[in-house]
Design goal:
There is one protein chain. The chain has a domain of 73 residues. 40% of the residues lie in helices and 14% in strands. The protein has 17 helices and 20 strands. Strand 10, helix 6 and strand 11 form a beta-alpha-beta unit. The structure holds iron/sulfur cluster. Iron/sulfur cluster (SF4) binds next to helix 16. Iron/sulfur cluster binds next to helix 16.
């Protein structure tokens, strides 16, 4: 019998979590670790490992094939390009401190698509081989260019069999024409609500009048378009975050059950304005307390609430194939499945790559809509965008669930070869998987209730807390 390589990590309770490269896990103790390391596994050990898919008798047998299938389905494989983020303008009617790298004042000329750019973008879209397309309009404030949004949508409807449009708007000043656009059946709206209205005012609107205008537009959007067509994301300043309960209740009151907590993006001018070294520990503490508060809230709430990224990570632990999130996958091949087209027609693999380039750190552009795509720089990054063989990640039991974010590494450290455990990415994900496993193995009925809801099952099965004693 051959055992697939096992990685392990001590947990606070003194036992050890073991996981193989396909993501199957169990807990055991130091005695088992010694037997495993010294190749002195007992018959009982071998029987456990074989029955649970951690070992095989001979290459090609059922256990081997099952492992290979689980391993392969944890790898991201980019499909055809069917998701395009468009930035028709950098102009914006708000000036959020952490967003200034990607916006200019509302009346500043020279930061919009002109007719030539629009034509080139439509030609680019027309050259795609996909039959379905998702277009996300970002900015700046994209509703300032409703004319462009309308033309892109009309073009897509006549070019693709299935279309979905997302307008990322600050919902600050919305014209009646824009409301009509939002109401179209293939259009959804994504906005920002920084936790609660007080925090939103402090970080974004900066005045009561503007906060009231935003609040009124948000209520109108939810009422007129419906909660399934409106999503909101909070950007959290880890140094001065809103109270967790206040965020949860604000979102729940609005009928929004999924909260995607995001720390202020390190990239862009936010780095100068806010302490860039907002350590992962500060964020992790806030996030952990937030999850604990969600568990408390869900215990008695009529409608449960989730933290989107935590639940995504939980699902990556429990199941393979959850490779849709661009920030958490391996290999994290960029520049194929989706791209960003900036206000000047330049193409980027991700929005973060656009910001890194605009700051002058590295040029991560991949050509433009006029002369075509050039992936030469991006291919160099892609060749390193794999955690399976990374010299640090190969020792980590969380590797199958985790991912790679080389653009983030480049932005923070100017290099992609930092020892992983020094990186913000690794520290945040080590915390989050520690938290998930502490909850998977928890006996607390409140925790088990939330975990069942978040995992999408009626009851959180105790068999998920696997042990080999
Ligand atoms: S980045 Fe860190 S948490 Fe993620 S697999 Fe690598 S070592 Fe583990």
């Amino acid at each position: 019998m051959t055992v697939f390589p096992l990685r392990f990590r001590p947990s606070p309770s003194g036992d050890l979590l073991f996981a193989d490269e396909a993501g199957s896990y169990f807990k055991s103790d130091h005695d088992f670790l010694t037997r495993y390391a010294l190749d002195r596994l007992t018959d009982r050990d071998q029987d456990y490992l074989l029955r649970n898919g951690h070992a095989f008798e001979e290459a090609g047998d059922l256990a081997y094939a099952g492992f290979e299938h689980r391993f392969a389905s944890r790898l991201y494989s980019p499909g055809e390009l069917d998701y395009v983020i468009l930035v028709p303008t950098l102009r914006c009617n708000l000036a959020c401190g952490y967003c200034q790298v990607s916006r200019v004042n509302e009346n500043t000329p020279g930061f919009d698509w002109d007719d030539r750019t629009l034509d080139a973008v439509l030609r680019f879209l027309g050259g795609l081989t996909t039959r379905k397309i998702k277009i996300e309009f970002q900015g700046g404030e994209p509703s300032l260019r409703l004319d462009v949004l309308t033309k892109v949508r009309e073009f897509c409807l006549t070019t693709f069999e299935s279309c979905e449009f997302v307008v990322c708007t600050n919902l600050q000043e919305i014209s009646e024409d824009a409301w009509q656009f939002f109401q179209l059946p293939d259009v959804v709206v994504s906005t920002s609500l920084d936790g609660d209205m007080l925090t939103h005012e402090r970080q974004r609107t900066l005045s009561c009048d503007k906060t009231r205008a935003f609040e009124s537009n948000l209520h109108r959007a939810l009422k007129q378009l419906g909660t399934d067509k409106v999503s909101a994301l909070p950007t959290i300043n880890p140094h001065r975050p809103p109270l967790a309960r206040s965020v949860i209740e604000t979102y729940a009151f609005l009928g929004m059950r999924s909260i995607y907590l995001r720390p202020i993006n390190f990239q862009g001018f936010a780095r100068k304005k806010y302490d860039a070294a907002a350590s992962a520990a500060t964020w992790n503490k806030y996030h952990s307390d937030f999850i604990d508060d969600l568990v408390e809230y869900n215990w008695t709430a009529d409608y449960a609430v989730e933290e989107y990224y935590f639940v995504h990570c939980l699902r990556r632990v429990l199941r393979s194939g959850h490779n849709g999130h661009v920030d958490l996958r391996s290999p994290n091949i960029v520049g194929y499945g989706y791209v960003v087209i900036d206000y000047d027609g330049k193409v980027y693999p991700t929005d973060e790559a656009r910001m890194v380039t605009r700051l002058g750190q590295f040029d991560l552009s991949m050509g433009d809509v006029f002369d075509g795509i050039d992936r030469s720089t991006i291919e160099t990054l892609n060749s390193e965008a794999l955690n399976n063989y990374h010299p640090d990640c190969v020792h980590c039991p969380y590797q199958p669930y985790c991912g790679v974010d080389l653009v983030d590494d480049l932005s923070r450290y100017g290099r992609i070869d930092m020892p992983k455990h020094f990186t913000d990415f690794c520290q945040r994900h080590t915390y989050i998987f520690d938290k998930i496993f502490s909850m998977i193995y928890s006996d607390d009925p409140k925790v088990r209730k939330s975990m069942a809801i978040w995992a999408g099952v009626h009851q959180f099965d105790r068999a998920l807390a696997r042990w080999h004693r």
